[in-house]
Amino acid sequence: VSLPASLGADEEVIEGGSVVAVLLPLPLEQPYSYHLPETLSVTRGTIVEVPLGQRRLPGVVWGRQDSAEVSAEKLKSVARVHSVPAMSRVQRRFITWVAGYTLAPPGAVLRMAVSVPAALDPPEPQRVLTRSAQAVPEDFRLTEARRRVLELAEQGFAHPPGVLAREAGVSTSVVKGLVEAGLLDSLAQRPRAVFAPPDAGRCGHRLSEGQAAVAETLSRKVTDSAFSVTLLDGVTGSGKTEVYFEAVAAALAQGRQVLVLQPEIALSSQWIERFERRFGVRPAEWHSDLTPAQRRITWRAVADGEARVLVGARSSLFLPFQELGLIVVDEEHDPAYKQEDGVIYQARDMAVVRGQLGQFAVILASATPSLESVLNVRAGKYEVAHLPARHGGASLPEVAILDMRRDRPERLPSGGQSWLAPSLRKAITETLEQGEQALLFLNRRGYAPLTLCRACGHRIECPDCTAWLVEHRQRSQLQCHHCGYRAPLPRSCPSCGEEDSLVACGPGVERLEEEVRILFPEARHLLLSSDTLPGPAAAQDLMRQIQEREVDLIVGTQIVAKGHHFPWLTLVGVVDADLGLNGGDLRAAERTYQLLQQVAGRAGRAERPGRVLLQSYLPEHPVLQALQSGDREAFLEHEADTRERGFLPPFSRMAALIVSAPDGQKADEAARALARTAPRAEGLDILGPAPAPLAVLRGRHRRRFLVKARRDLPLQKLLADWRGKVPLRGGVRLAIDIDPYSF
Length: 743
Ligand code: ADP
Ligand code: ZN
What we know:
Binding site for Zn(2+) 2: 462, 465, 480, 483
Oligomer: single chain
Strand order of the largest sheet: 12-13-11-14-17-10-18
Bound molecules: adenosine-5'-diphosphate, zinc ion
InterPro entries: DEAD/DEAH_box_helicase_dom, Helicase_ATP-bd, Helicase_C-like, P-loop_NTPase, PriA, PriA_3primeBD, PriA_3primeBD_sf, PriA_C
Family: Belongs to the helicase family. PriA subfamily.
Binding site for Zn(2+) 1: 453, 456, 493, 496
Low-confidence stretches: 1-9
Enzyme class: isomerase
């Protein structure tokens, strides 16, 4: 990637009359040149508005262009300068770096940073409402509608009355009523966030000696104002959050902004409440469930430096922080940090790069660190801090493997198939008798993963993907989990036409819930699966129901695995511990280990000891053995060995090239052309072309090359040259995935 060597001193003013290079938030390799009118002056990083064709777009001044290189008359002019602080030099270098690493066009990376054009200009002052200091009086009827409005106002967003009503989904009369009751104040100001500064001086919990030592180490890393990466490694419940809050406080005390990355932000309401208890205010949030107004206000508050702490999903890494001084990557091992479309990147790894460019501390927290991070610690690149014990002496759950070859499920009273081994059924009964909660974990949405015709053997597949359709019985639908295709559940076989011949094969959580209803009719049960939840608010409510013991038996997918405290949960049954172990995925074993360890960590967090039962047909598998013995080191050792022998990451570097086309023949032709021009070098291993794991996805036929390279080879350069040799025509596309996750 050859961007102008433009990253000189930021302060240098570029006067009107010059020609400037402006990077646009479009998939472009190069900045475009514009003439800067005499009336304007900018610096590098200034966000300007420029014409492009019929449109006007925001762009970032990337540098000065030697006017000899371009004929100035033909140039269009910068239209105006946006009133937002210039993008920092570090941020611009970060964009360039990410583009170079991922082989994405710099403009595409910029688009992630300037994702809210409406935030670039401050809105006009108007009447906005904020939560007043007055508490809700005892005799005030707090209806659901009123509660929603107050909740929104308490989140720190100051909205005009109409917007507040719309975002809360209530009529304006509800809002008016709250103003009259004195619960909302009306002010004339610009709609903005009232992100009050967190109070770093408030005291958190009194830390144990071990926790205090780690907190001290982390805080020192922050105040050193130098680049460092520390792996915060501690079992679930050991106080990692508590401890890194101290590092957050240290950064705030230094006047720096803080970013906390979470893999699934929509579900981290508990985290936000804890933050609020510790720092007295809510943090700013960034995730896909924000309304457009919230996005605009939050983006602006980050750019203006008003939001001091932001908790967000991976995309928040590209927000225009001015004074970022700490990034915490919570659950650093989580696969949700990998972004798979558009710019393909690993947010945990890019957070480390951001820390290096900005010269500050990065904390990676996990109870089951990724093999990469563990090996980086061993190599001396990262430091490590351990929190070995659960806080308050809570013991880790006891884990046992149920060998399904012997412990076979009996039939249901109806004669139907059961998915629960007798010993698991018994354990559930015991748990319920003691008034405690049980969780049945199955990482499979829907009712059944496969629908088969008993008459002709036909399996119902997605018309656009190489994948079976998954039955979702609650919605009477078949769904493709890869492209989102939906169709009503057919009555007869689409292939042979036979009536009532279709059978559901295998279990999904919906089917498991059905079984639970039959076997434990007295138990109050709950299904937790991303697709049966209407939204994040509903998720929060369900989590609360579990915490307050309003349910006895929970059936859930991986959304229950993360971060939540369920004090009454003492039994976890993993219905299919082998799910995820098969398949040619490089990280299959590691991921299964991490996921099951996380799920297991839900059990027995308070005074009540927990136990975990793993149903498996592969009881000898190293992953299951490690879960049972609790010997994580042995597992990591085994995993590192396997990867090293296979010349797999992190012992080599890897990339996937996926060529796709509307039809199979075009895809094959393009793949053959690529194969002919493939680079050759010692230590470079190119496998393929072969059909990609989803050989057809959304109607596109996909062929894949896997590239393994010795770590000292210039992988990006080799790939960029290779890509440049083959012109793509006729709807053929090429995607490059550096450090691919699943294949
Ligand atoms: P982790 O992030 O490692 O899972 P947490 O920080 O969430 O651990 O701590 C687990 C639980 O123990 C939380 O409810 C937390 O408030 C509590 N806890 C941890 N450390 C302390 C402490 N020093 N004093 C009081 N409570 C603590
Ligand atoms: Zn599909």
